[in-house]
Amino acid sequence: MERRAHAIVALAFLALLGIGVVVAGLWMHHGRQPGLIYDVVSPYSVAGLQEQAPVRFKGVRVGEVRSIGLDPRNPRMILVRITVSKGTPVTRATFAELAPQGVTGLSYLSLSDAGTNFAPVHTSTLHPGQIPMHPSFLEVLSRKGESLVNQSNELALRLSATLNASNRRHLAQTIRQLDTASAQLVQLEAALLPTIKALPAVVAATQSTMQESQSMLKNINQLTISATGPLRDVGAAARSIQGLGSSGEKVTETLNYSTLPQLEILTRRLNSTTEALEGLSQSLQRSPQSLLYGAKAPPPGPGERGFHGGGGS
């Protein structure tokens, strides 16, 4: 009887527990807000992403992955159907990326927004809106790594072609020449060492010369200041000489334009008077009586009274 009682109690407990789990599940299912359906279109691999994987928008969980499959219109593309809670700002600038979940090898879907276009993406159950997939960090690193490996191989091939036997001989010769040049530099350093040691004395002498030059410049400056007074006197004298020159120019203009023309007229009159006096003197010498009787009349000409022709008498 006791065993049957324990079995009945155990069965009743299990039944109650099952009913509680079903009720809690139904309550949670009906309490969850219905989400919006979107299709994430990916040309890249979605390895590590599984159904019911979380969907996060900038780190905040907003939904989950419902299904993963190939696009029937383009088998090269992958369609990841997700359910996102209402209020999630899915715009035309929203894109998806795969992000790893720790070290488990699994991934979740991360939604981000570039912030360039805030127009919302319209979606429905029959025609879900599409969100583009961007390459994940591992995808970019893988592609860059492959390109880097290819470049490294090409560099190795070029180095192998460059370092042939002839170039290796030239390289060895260059190294020997560098060794010789290094030895010559050591010798040059040893030869320049005394000169370098003498540089402080030269610098000191240069500083002394500069100080003496500064002192000389100061003396020249004082001499210039002292000579300012005499230079002022010389300037005044120059201005006086300039005034005297101006007066001389005025006197010269007076002589040229006033006095000299009058002297020329007087000289001409004196010459005329002298010529008249000279003629009078000659006339008196020829006939002194003309001073008392006047000048003798000239002989009559043709047609005048008393004119005698050359054929008469």
UniProtKB/TrEMBL annotation:
<dbReference type="InterPro" id="IPR003399">
    <property type="entry name" value="Mce/MlaD"/>
</dbReference>
<feature type="region of interest" description="Disordered">
    <location>
        <begin position="291"/>
        <end position="313"/>
    </location>
</feature>
<dbReference type="Pfam" id="PF02470">
    <property type="entry name" value="MlaD"/>
</dbReference>
<feature type="domain" description="Mce/MlaD">
    <location>
        <begin position="45"/>
        <end position="112"/>
    </location>
</feature>
<protein>
    <submittedName>
        <fullName>MCE family protein</fullName>
    </submittedName>
</protein>
